[in-house]
Here is the input.
Amino acid sequence: MSRDDNPLDWALLFRAFQDASEWLLDVAAHTARGYADEIAAVERVRKFMRARNAGRPAHMRLDDLLFTFALVLAAVERDLGPLHVRPPSFVHLAPPELRAAA
Here is the structure.
């Protein structure tokens, strides 16, 4: 089957991404409530995301993006507790006693 036989409707993906990013930015803004400068950083990221989703060129400071991402992670940890990350199954770790010696 060629790509042209069954074209994908990418608009559905972009709409879902837009909805999810708006929700995450709402979470970040709520986490930063009471701190005007921090809320402003989140809103600059929101402005960037909206422009890019609309197909317009936009720029954003990396600091704003990283700060907003940190707010979202803080909210996840606050609401769900610390996440215990396991390495992928293809990563073979040494036994704990050998890792402690390293």
User: Anything to note?
Assistant: The mean pLDDT is 86. The chain is about 65% helix and 0% strand.
